[in-house]
From TrEMBL:
Keywords: Signal, Transport. One of its GO terms (cellular component) is cell envelope. This is Peptide/nickel transport system substrate-binding protein. It comes from Pseudonocardia alni (Amycolata alni). The keyword Signal applies. Residues 78-401 form the Solute-binding protein family domain. Gene3D superfamilies: Dipeptide-binding Protein, Domain 3, Periplasmic binding protein-like II. It is found in: Cell envelope. The keyword Transmembrane helix does not apply.
Length: 506
């Protein structure tokens, strides 16, 4: 998922506001150690609880509390059974039979095959504007059917031997057939909704009869704290037990603390510079290559990430399955970069680099990139944009921008973001029919070597031509209070990330 479009530095007037909210509560019951309080950046008054429209990380976490998916993504980004107890496909990879486990919605009704079909119909309905819609573009809804109440058959218009990956993507939560509104969610997840205020607190109560066991806490409360310093302050003062998405500096601040600590999942978010290949000045490939050779990735990781990450190799998915082995980072070559700038007639050219608080590393990276590219003859200045709507703005109007993406399976990243049919994530104006061809070949084959080769070729094309370069892969940091157990350091978008079902307060 692209990082959340974090809103303004407004929430609850810092930690004091969190304290007030935590003390007053938002719905019945809940004593101090029965209610787990978690702090996330939120989307303000426009928020909803629609489990199929998840623009923010907090939306994903709330959906995970109340709903479940057919599969979940493991830490190595492979599918694991959730509501789908087992599955199998025919030899072509076009017909999939899914056996559902015994689970119940919060209203007591059983999960059925009709609920799965209704969910997919809602996701693929353009009116929903679902986050995961493109993953099901090849679903043949007319041919898919309920074989029995607990068995569903999904039919595709073309082969996809990796289809179970799609079932665990954010925004694929299963809803009850007949659902027309998300105001009162009725899911199969470990928590039931008690109250929700857009831009404010959301409270859930434990579903004691959840199919995977009762949660470890009686209540779960999401509190809106957009400012990282306020999240850390609330954590250290005991007003919240969990603080989401900390910068390297924030994580380092918790080192040696007895009141709280940081959980860090290594190499979990790719940090990008994106250049529009269809807009001046980066429509000139010489300038794109000058930027690629002109930045110092090692310095960026050392200074911006405080060493809490890896140097990027300009490819998404470092450390994940299907990422090609042996690809190293691009070595900085100031002389060659300066020569390319001169050759392009751009010596001293003024270029704005768009940034915002939408990612905690963007501003620091922008300042450093500006200095580094100044050494090759480009005059780069920061252009701050509002966090709210940042990713939409750089997609529509960007030329040179900061971007970031949390962990995703490489097939999901390509299939949802890099094809000619997926303009929603087009940050560079680059699309290639050859990538489409290689992708459909990769997901159709049962030959893993051929699939691996196809994905490697796609990533190679993106590295060479797309205008997007990955300068670093940062660790994913969250803060947890002393005495809070049952959470693990997890990559964002995986099943274990922001999953509070097994959390316990000491």
């Amino acid at each position: 998922m692209t990082p959340p479009e974090l809103s303004r530095r407004r929430v609850l007037t810092g930690a004091l506001g969190v304290a007030a909210l935590a003390l007053t509560g938002c719905s019945g019951g809940g004593t101090g150690e029965e209610r787990l309080r978690v702090a996330f950046a939120t989307g303000g008054s426009r928020e909803s609880l629609d489990p199929h429209v998840l623009p923010l990380y907090v939306d994903q976490a709330r959906a995970k509390a109340c709903f479940d998916t057919l599969t979940g993504w493991s830490q190595d980004m492979t599918p694991e059974p959730r509501l789908a107890e087992s599955w199998e496909s025919d030899a072509t990879g076009r017909r999939w039979r899914i056996r559902l486990r015994a689970a119940r919605f919060h209203d007591g009704s059983p999960l059925t095959a009709d609920d799965v079909l209704a969910t997919l119909a809602r996701i693929t309905d353009p009116a929903t504007t679902a986050t995961a819609a493109t993953l099901f573009r090849d679903l043949d809804a007319a041919a898919s059917r309920a074989v029995s109440p607990t068995e569903v058959e999904l039919v595709l218009t073309r082969p996809n031997t990796l289809f179970p990956l799609a079932w665990g993507a954010p925004g694929t939560e299963i809803v009850k057939a007949g659902t027309t509104s998300s105001d009162r969610p009725n899911g199969t997840g470990p928590f039931r909704l008690a109250s929700f205020t857009p831009g404010g607190s959301t409270v859930y109560t434990a579903s004691e009869d959840h199919w995977d066991g009762a949660p470890g806490v009686r209540e779960l409360e999401f509190l809106p704290v957009d400012d990282e310093a306020a999240r850390i302050g609330a954590l250290l003062s005991g007003q919240v037990h969990y603080a989401h998405d900390l910068t390297p500096t924030g994580a380092a601040r918790l080192g040696g603390e007895q009141r709280a600590s940081a959980l860090s999942a290594p190499a979990s978010a790719s940090q990008f510079l994106v250049m529009r290949v269809d807009r001046a000045p980066f429509s000139d490939p010489r300038l794109r290559e000058a930027v690629r050779l002109g930045i110092d990735r090692e310095e960026l990781v050392r200074v911006v990430l405080l060493g809490r990450g890896r140097v990027g190799d300009d490819m998404f998915g470092q450390g994940l399955r299907y990422h090609p082995a042996g690809v190293g980072p691009v070595a900085r070559d100031v002389a060659r970069a300066r020569a390319l700038v001169t050759e392009a007639g751009a010596q001293g050219a003024a270029i704005e680099l768009q940034t915002s608080g939408a990612d905690p590393t963007f501003d620091a990276a922008t300042a450093l990139v500006a200095r580094q590219l100044g050494e090759v003859g480009l005059r780069v200045t920061a252009r701050p944009l509002p966090s709210s709507g940042y990713f939409r703005a750089i997609r529509q109007q960007g030329v040179f921008s900061q971007n970031s993406t949390g962990s995703l399976p490489i097939p999901d990243y390509i299939g949802r973001r890099m094809l000619t049919s997926t303009p929603t994530y087009d940050f560079t104006g680059y699309r290639s029919p050859e990538i489409d061809r290689l992708y459909h070949s990769a997901v159709a084959t049962t030959d893993d070597a051929a699939r691996t080769d196809a994905f490697a070729r796609i990533l190679g094309l993106l590295r060479a031509e797309s205008g997007a370069l990955v300068w670093g892969v940062r660790d994913w940091n969250v803060g947890v209070a002393a005495g809070l157990t049952g959470l693990e350091a997890a990559r964002p978008n995986t099943f274990a990330w922001a999953n509070f079902a097994r959390a316990r307060l000491g």
